[in-house]
TrEMBL record:
Its EC number is 3.-.-.-. Mn(2+) binds at residues 105, 107, 141, 165, 364. Its cofactor is Mn(2+). GO terms for molecular function: metal ion binding; N-acetyldiaminopimelate deacetylase activity. It comes from Jeotgalibaca dankookensis. GO terms for biological process: diaminopimelate biosynthetic process; lysine biosynthetic process. Keywords: Amino-acid biosynthesis, Diaminopimelate biosynthesis, Hydrolase, Lysine biosynthesis, Manganese, Metal-binding. The Mn(2+) ion enhances activity. It is an enzyme of class 3 (hydrolase). This is Putative hydrolase YxeP.
Length: 393
């Protein structure tokens, strides 16, 4: 039997490997659906382990580890692999060398922690009953990666799923395992405003898409405050507003991009309807027109209650029960791990990586970084949860 002490020892033996791998990926980040070199390196690591795998899409991979004690349940472990379109201002030796691309969400650490866990699981393969599927998934940041695995039928026969995310909001040594709702849904809407150009000195000849877009952005702010209940838990955010080509030209086109986040399907549908309705009517008031589209990036992420309890018990053995958080407030951020949870029950945990000012920057900040000791907790959590689940069948 593999004891927790033995798992801890084996993970500790992987520390240099995990840390160096994380720094490699941090230095060589790639955007969603463009993770060609990232997946190439991942496949090389799997080849070195002698672990069979199949490609999923162009930049995903699903590896299979068959336990030596015969067939049993099938568990999926997942790590996302894409980076963000932003500069890296950490100033570290492993700063991104790809201009304008940065692993500012921690996915580099997700890859490294899971790969370290796979090393340990491979070493003890003969003592495992059942099957462990290992998914390295692209495009989480745009909600397009998990569905490649799900819609492609790659995980149809999976019994259980487990994933985790590093967290700079939580201190090093903390693990979060929340039963029930954890992360909100994510819709990404785009509004193009169509106007008519003219010289600013003769505005009556034009139809100002810039002014119309500004009015739309302002009016959209009334949806949460006036069309939903305070208890509805909904966010409507605008992240992009672009218009105009020169100071003396009435803009003939403007572009708005934003997101809706909620936990309730009816609220979600109503808010999206309101976004389109208000955009069209506001544009009409300014003698302009709009084109509207929406992308369903992620469903609400709802953890299975029993799986969350199992994660709590496993995490308690790693960091102590006093360092495991079960009552974490729901987050309005989204994660397409929800697509895997639609296939099979499971849990999505968070692992603290904050230990200093340098590791306290929020995710999606140019100076985001982690205390790499948290990677060992993440790797050990992967291994321990897998063994606990597969041994209780």
């Amino acid at each position: 039997m593999i004891t927790q002490a033995k798992i801890h020892e084996r993970i500790s033996d992987q520390e240099a490997y995990i840390t160096n791998l994380r720094r490699h990926f941090h230095q060589h980040p790639e955007l969603s659906l463009q993770e060609y070199e990232t997946i190439k390196r991942i496949k090389e690591e799997l080849d070195n382990l002698g672990l069979p795998y199949q490609s999923v899409g162009e930049t995903g991979v699903l590896a299979t580890l068959e336990g030596g004690k015969g067939p049993g349940k099938k568990l999926l472990l997942r790590a996302d692999i894409d980076a963000l379109p932003m500069d890296d201002l950490t100033g570290q030796a492993y700063t991104s060398i790809n201009a304008g691309v940065n692993h500012a969400c921690g996915h580099d650490g997700h890859i490294a922690a899971l790969m370290g866990a796979v090393h340990v699981l491979k070493d003890i393969q003969d003592e495992i009953k059942g099957t462990i599927m290992v998914a390295f998934q692209p495009a989480e940041e745009i909600g397009a990666g998990a569905r490649q695995f799900v819609r492609g039928g790659f995980v149809n026969d999976v019994d259980h799923v487990f994933g985790l995310h590093l967290s700079s909001r939580h201190a090093l040594g903390k693990i979060i395992a929340t039963p029930g709702p954890s992360n909100a849904s994510c819709d990404i809407f785009k509004i193009t405003v169509h106007g008519k150009s003219s010289h600013v000195a003769n505005p009556v000849l034009g139809r100002d898409a810039l002014v119309s877009a500004a009015a739309i952005v302002g009016e959209l702010q009334t949806i949460v405050s006036r069309e939903t209940k305070p208890s509805d838990e909904v966010v409507l955010g605008i992240g992009v507003l672009r218009a105009g080509t020169n100071y003396n030209i009435i803009a003939n086109e403007a572009f708005i991009e934003g997101t809706v986040r909620t936990f309730d399907s009816k609220v979600r549908a109503h808010v999206l309807e309101a976004v389109e309705r208000i955009a069209r009517l506001t544009a009409q008031a300014h003698r302009t027109e709009v084109s509207f589209s929406n992308y369903d990036a992620a469903a609400p992420l709802i953890n299975d209650v029993d799986a969350a309890q199992a994660a709590y018990e496993v995490a308690a053995k790693i960091v102590g029960a006093e360092n495991v958080i079960q009552d974490e407030p729901k987050s309005m951020s989204a994660d397409d791990f929800a697509d895997f949870l639609a296939v099979a029950p499971g849990v999505y945990c968070f692992v603290g990586t904050q230990s200093s000012q340098e590791t306290a920057f929020s995710h999606h900040h140019q100076q985001f970084d982690i205390d790499e000791r948290g990677l060992l907790h993440a790797a050990e959590l992967h291994v321990s949860y897998a063994l606990n689940y597969l041994s209780n069948q």
